[in-house]
Amino acid sequence: MSNEATTPVPDSPFRPEPGDRDLAPQFVLPLVVRIERTAPPARTDALETAARAVLVLLGDERSAGDGEWAGAVRDWQDARIRKVVRRARGAEWRRAEALPGVTVEGGSAEVRVFPPVPLDGWPKDLARLQVSGTDLDDPEPPGAADPGAPVLWMNPGLDMSAGKAMAQAGHGAQLAWWELDAGARAAWRAAGYPLSVRTADPARWEGLTTSGLPVVRDAGFTEIAPGSCTVVADHPALRRG
Fold first, then answer.
1. CA atoms of 8 and 155, how far apart (whole Å)
2. Based on the number of CB atoms within 10 Å of its own CB, is 208 exposed (0-12), middle (13-18) or buried (19 or more)?
3. What's the pTM?
4. Which helix (H) or strand (E) holds 182?
5. Which residues cross the membrane (predicted)?
């Protein structure tokens, strides 16, 4: 056994190995995407809207200080950071909209985000919604991302359902938010949280993951292997050099 000192590994909310966060009560952030039979949203728009929805909740005054959601948000962030995306349409969507939360609209997508709930304590109108069936497509390939705005780069080697990818995009946005100082957060909030979600060029992916930008390493609860790098959060304020 080596006696050399080692740098402790931070107890990341996305790190797959067990840590102190696993001992805390577990919460989940519910997101519901509206998918009507006749007009489903485009996949990339749904991913971007979900990521912005997470930021809207984090930046909401009700999530800070003595706000009505602040306790739930703190409890959620003290444990593993879990997000679950469910789908709704028609009356299901209307019932979801009646619950406390915030609806965020994209070009074709609508996503409602709710304050965190206990892992086994979902409101019944959300618990009955389906997780499966969130497979979405882009009618046309998305255009190039704005290099001057935040970009959430998705792993080109992973095949994820739209719901899984929406949750991962939300994780990436959250990591970027945590890394920003108060001024950069305020500026992003004031601008309406602009961002893009794009699949990285395979030739660039390794460089992105070692660039010093925030990287989401999935805990492996669903769909993909534990420790998989899913998203790199490329915010201009976090770029090195």
1. 27
2. buried
3. 0.89
4. helix 182-190
5. none
Pairing relationship of beta strands 196-199 and 151-154 according to DSSP bridges: parallel
Question: Which segments of 31-180 does DSSP mark as H helices, in order?
Answer: 43-59, 70-78, 90-97, 124-127, 162-179
The C-alpha torsion from 175 through 181 and 182 to 185, rounded to 10°, is: -50
63 SS3 class:
helix
Confidence at residue 190, expressed as pLDDT on a 0 to 100 scale = 97
Task: Return the H-helix or E-strand segment holding 154.
Answer: strand 151-154
Q: Model confidence over 128-155: pLDDT tens digits?
A: 999 876 789 999 999 999 888 999 999 9
Half-sphere exposure for 55 (CA within 13 Å, toward CB)? 28
Q: What residues are paired with 97 via a beta bridge?
A: none
* For residue 59, pLDDT beyond 50: yes
Average pLDDT value for the chain: 88
